[in-house]
Amino acid sequence: MIREHVQKGLLAGEKNFRWRATEITRLEGFTDAVFAFAVTLLVVSLEVPKTFSELLIAMKGFIAFAVCFALLVQVWYEHYTFSRRYGLQTAYTVFLNSVLLFVVLFYVYPLKFIFTLLVAQVTGGATVAGNVDDMIRADQSANLMVIYSLGFTAVFGVFALLYAYAYSKRTLLELTEYEALLTRKSIVEHVSMAALGIVIAITAKLLPTRFAGAAGYLFSLIGVYHTIAGTIYGRKEKAVLAKMNAGQQNTAIS
């Protein structure tokens, strides 16, 4: 029954963007399993607290876990959306998918470490990883920021390649003008995010040692980018939809 609804387009998923994938593939199932394992790695080191003081320390760990969990879900949903939109199952997409999963698994611990450190700096005191001063030295901040930024770049770089590949297959996929526009938008977005990660890594290395961590504030440019891009592409999307709707009306009249 569900399969029939999908084939009829009743479960389109996105307004004005036809999802070309139907059943969950083995590749998507494998991806879901890897992301589930990555989430498990985020909490595997948490122990049941034996005292209330330990519970309070553990709660700080839960905050860091929540942030990391949200970021992993964001990456998973981006992959889910791509898979549903295009339904591509070629050797190239399998390769890029494998690279993405490798990066996600490799960067789980750096991701957890950096947000545990940030939460500790904001809340003060000890964390599940120990005292803040014991977690990292001042001269290690630059390398930590480089590691995180390069992981950030790798994830968005893979998505940029995936969307670029989908756009190259736009004729085969029969993308509408609106769908092609959203695909180009995704390419620009992911390339921009990957470039931002590189800029932050370079900045962290160029700044004096004690200020290297300040390079992380450049991640706030993500919000600036989405504000500007949302305005620009929002106008383009409305124009393309209006053009497509006008064309459909003219066809119906004729």
What does this structure look like?
- It is a single chain.
- With 254 residues, the chain is mainly alpha-helical.
- It has 2 domains: 24-132, no CATH class; 137-254, no CATH class.
- It has 10 helices and 2 strands.
- The chain has a two-stranded antiparallel sheet.
- Helix 2 (26-43) runs parallel beside helix 4 and helix 7 packs antiparallel against helix 9.
- The longest helix has 35 residues, at 52-86.
- It is globular, with a radius of gyration of 22 Å.
- The model is unreliable at 1-11 (pLDDT under 50).
Integer average pLDDT: 85
Counting structural domains, the number is 2
Order of helices and strands: HHHHHEEHHHHH
Distance between the termini: 36 Å
The percent range for helix content is over 70%
Q: How many strands, what sense, and barrel or not for the largest sheet? A: 2 strands, antiparallel
Count of beta strands: 2
SS-based class:
mainly alpha
Low-confidence stretches: 1-11
Write the layout of secondary structure elements.
Elements lengths: L1 H6 L18 H18 L8 H35 L4 H16 L1 H16 L2 E2 L2 E2 H4 L5 H28 L1 H4 L3 H30 L14 H33 L1
Antiparallel strand pairs: 1-2
How would you describe this structure in keywords?
single chain; 254 residues; mainly alpha; 2 domains; two-stranded antiparallel sheet; 2 strands; disordered N terminus
